[in-house]
């Protein structure tokens, strides 16, 4: 693995800026590679998954029985944020891995593989990184980030082989507005963050797979190209919410296929997965559990038509105390773990498109 100096990263940043042109132009370009219908079976190794643990809110916890429930529903992959705040709440104190030891062990016991997210920089409301990171300068932040990331990978690399880098770093400016990050980062800083995390994984486990987390907003192709200059990540993990502004449940297949084609083009034809998608079912206009069920099936089939290799729903459980409205009722299970109709639909989708045993 190559260790890049800040000067080299700055040179790469200038190269990327010069080469990529106007990000808005790229957003509206790209061909559509959508198949007319979903394949009869998902491709071998397709990831049927969900975000099981993201924001370490005090009233959102996973327990051992949750992993059995997920496995029985056909879930074979989960995305878990190995939240820095939970591991190192106070700077310099010994790391506390107790919760994630349980999560890793129970997932493994139930035949569920994990995409472990490391380095999520939310450090304000909905903090995933410790709040004390907000006061660090870039060099101090990178040093602390590197120590934490290496400690996590070193502890779990025997059981975890897929690692997601940061979280939606190409949307950091919006996270500042929504009071989730203390500040946004420059392009050079973003490159150094992604490089640091990727190196932390690859230097410990050269066979590991790293995933670049990307929101499909204007300029996302450019972001993929820029990060590829400094990090040899293996997979592009898209975050896409077609129903974020209006409760649409169908008719966006072309959009799904287009973003996959663009992501492959920008990354040099790396595999693409949908690391996040979802639909809130809070009972508002058009946002019913039945609409959520319809959206899940259609989105899963559009993803299969697009040529992507994974589908992760956001998220497992409702959390009425979640501070952000969109995430509050996106779960496939209610807060008390009563299944919604979309939970049952997901099991049907997985069965329908999974290879049948001989």
Outline the structure in words.
By secondary structure, the chain is an alpha/beta fold. It has a single domain (6-353), classed as TIM Barrel (Alpha-Beta Barrel). Helices cover 41% and strands 13% of the residues. An eight-stranded parallel beta barrel has the order 1-2-3-4-5-6-7-8, surrounded by five helices. Helix 10 (253-267) crosses helix 11 (289-306) and helix 11 (289-306) runs parallel beside helix 13. The radius of gyration is 19 Å and the shape is globular. Mean pLDDT is 92; it is low at 21-30.
Number of strands: 8
Q: Approximately what portion of the residues adopt beta-strand conformation?
A: 5-15%
Number of helices: 13
Structural class from helices and strands?
A: alpha/beta
Please report the distance between the alpha carbons of the first and last residues. 42 Å
Largest sheet: 8 strands, parallel, barrel
What is the string of helix and strand elements? HHEHEHHEHEHHEHEHEHEHH
Kindly identify the CATH topology: TIM Barrel
Q: Could you say how many structural domains there are in total?
A: 1
What is the CATH architecture term? Answer: Alpha-Beta Barrel
As a percent range, the share of helical residues equals: 40-55%
Mean pLDDT equals 92
Summarize the structure.
By secondary structure, the chain is of the alpha/beta class. 41% of the residues lie in helices and 13% in strands.
Which terms summarize this structure?
single chain; 41% helix; 358 residues; alpha/beta
